Amino acid sequence: MYFKKLLAISLALLGCGASQAAFSAESESWKFEVTPYFFAAGMNGKVGIRGVTSDVDASFSDILKNLDQGFMGLVTASKGRWTYGLEALYVKLDDNASKSVTGPFGHVGVKGALGITSKLYVYQGSVAYRVFDNAVSVDLLGALRYTKVYTKASVNLSTTPGIVFPGGSRSASGSASWTDAVVGTRVFYPVSDKFSLFGYADIGGGGSDLTYQFMLGADWHFAKNFTAKLGYRQLYWDYSKGGDVWKMRVSGPYLGLGISF
Prior knowledge:
Elements: H1 2-23, E1 31-39, E2 42-49, E3 52-58, H2 60-66, E4 67-79, E5 82-97, E6 100-103, E7 106-108, E8 114-133, E9 137-155, E10 171-190, E11 195-206, E12 210-223, E13 226-241, E14 244-260
Antiparallel strand pairs: 1-4, 1-14, 2-3, 2-14, 3-6, 4-5, 5-8, 6-7, 8-9, 9-10, 10-11, 11-12, 12-13, 13-14
């Protein structure tokens, strides 16, 4: 029921956005912005494969050391009070050490008992409508957030009790993907012609039991069509299904460059 309500709100916003865009097509022009960015994230939570769950607590320095590949970017198109956005995030981490492991064998509290390799994909499409535009600008939005996680775990240390996956193997891999409907708001406060403050928060669910995100940041319009973006971001998922678990908080500072045209 919770998911159906969120999905209905998101689809309603999408439908209204399409109608408003058509209505204002002759009177207003489109504005586009492309923002590649760097997200200096740490990870804290639980990841599970086939009923074996491991605690993960990786700082940004740990992730940077084990980072294999990464890409983040956001594209927006605005017209009148409406803004359409598409964001993509991909991170691959190799050999991230676990703090402890729980499974059919019990609980093993040995740091690095498992080596965890993870690939995280996040794609989000959103529609926002500006409900207030004065000294402060306020947008309401609906979005669909697709998340895919691939995880491989290998036993690194001999422990008592011994760590084995169901079937007697000492390693396992698996993937899970799901889509959540989210609703949220964002606020812009211009400090001057060149600087503005930014806040964003959303919450939702559907594929996961719960997901949320928030950001706090500042934008510096240092040149025509170019904006430097700096702030703090946190994403959270609570997902578990069929022995696969992704209860993870990903958080840290971000730095981006907005290019408008």
